[in-house]
Design brief:
This protein is an alpha+beta fold. The protein has nine helices and ten strands.
Length: 271
Amino acid sequence: MTLIKNKKTAEIVGLCFGDGSLTRRHSGKDKGKLRFQLRGSITEDKEHYQDYIIPLFYEAFGINVKPVICNGKDKSYGISTENKRICESLHELGVPIGIKGELSIPRWITSDKEFAKCFIRGLVDTDGSVFCGKDYNYPEKGHIKLRMSITSVSRKLVYEVSKILTDIAIKNLVIKQYHPRQQNCKDFSKLQIDGRNVVQYFEMIGSKNQKHISKFHVWKKFGFCPPYTKLEQRKNMLQASQRRYNHTHAGVAEPGQMRKFVFHQESEVLA
């Protein structure tokens, strides 16, 4: 089997290093068989899987993977397959089998700048976060400080990602290891990108996950993004803003009072 190492497979390895797992069955008639799983939030990540990840796997391997829904405590949406070609290819591309501990980005990815950027996009789109924090110098302005972060129990992985970002002039900060409050949880490391460097990230690496894209666009449009909003709410904000823009430029008078967006969960009101 000839492995194709390109931008698509580099991004898939990043996805796997984020929320993916490659494991072997330990019992039964299929003992020893490999199984690959990749899962995210059913509300925030479903669109990412349907519109991008599933087609990406087909483009890379020529095999259709079907979506699966996990109805556990935290309902999730993703893909799962025991296809031998996909599982063995992922392992040969550098995805480890079993519990992910210390991870290292495969050399074939780090040696190519474009492959490395695609790997980081896959990693961040599954295991990273985009958010707006408060600027305590201007508390009345709410959540205006745009940030991104990646956390991992693998300190080596965090430093390797930091080096790639630094090499392409995206400033970032690796924060000291955290010790979780929950028992039996490993220490984890965190990489953070702030402000204009987040803008540079979206310009140079980008995202294929509407969960991240919508937060970034809300911040660009309004100068802030309230916490705990859902993807659908952020899309509604952007669509309503575009409708107002279209009405204004079509010569239609604006209503006397600007429409407000109310998020009942957090009582956030955006004028």
